[in-house]
Amino acid sequence: MRRVLVLLCGSLLAAGLPFAVAGQGAESLAPAAAPVAAPDAKPATKLECLKAAETREEVRARHFIEPFAAVKIAARESKAEALSVKLCHLGDEWIYSVALLQHDGHTAHIWLDAASGRIVPNRPHDTVKN
Q1: Block means of pLDDT (10 residues each) for the chain, length 130 residues?
Q2: Rounded to whole angstroms, how far apart are CA atoms 99 and 101?
Q3: β pairing state of 81-90 and 47-49
Q4: How many CB atoms lie within 10 A of CB 63?
Q5: In the chain, which ranges are E strands?
Q6: Residue 123, pLDDT score
């Protein structure tokens, strides 16, 4: 397990995600499919996630909690290992999307409010645009 975490952290660092760490945390969610809208319905706003450099800029500008802190909170609350974190926004709502590895080997996601670090319950399965 330690070897897997070392390899994972190394690959995340190489990908420019220095704030992803191993921890404890998760609630299970399957990958979301794109929502099907009625023909006359307005298109839904997409959840857009930022790249690492953009995340650093937004955290400084908007005084959000640091991504490392978000990972620690998510891991502690969900008792799983944190794999990665992304800062995302849906309109004016800013959240951290934290990917987790549960003890049974399944992956999960948990969402945290970027300003407060509180868990966002019942996060809708929006289409994620990277």
Answers
A1: 44 42 39 44 72 96 96 95 95 94 94 95 58
A2: 7
A3: antiparallel
A4: 9
A5: 47-49, 81-90, 93-101, 107-113, 128-129
A6: 61
Q: Which domain range does residue 79 map to?
A: 23-29+44-129
SS3 66: coil
- In a domain? residue 55: yes
Query: Other C-beta atoms within 10 Å of 121: how many?
Result: 7
Is the residue at 122 inside a domain? yes
Number of domains in the chain: 1
Residue 3 domain flag: no
- In order, the DSSP letters of 83-119 are EEEEEEEETTEEEEEEEEE-TTS-EEEEEEETTT--B
- Judge contact between 12 and 22, C-beta under 8 A: no
Is 127 in contact with 32 (CB distance < 8 Å)?
A: yes
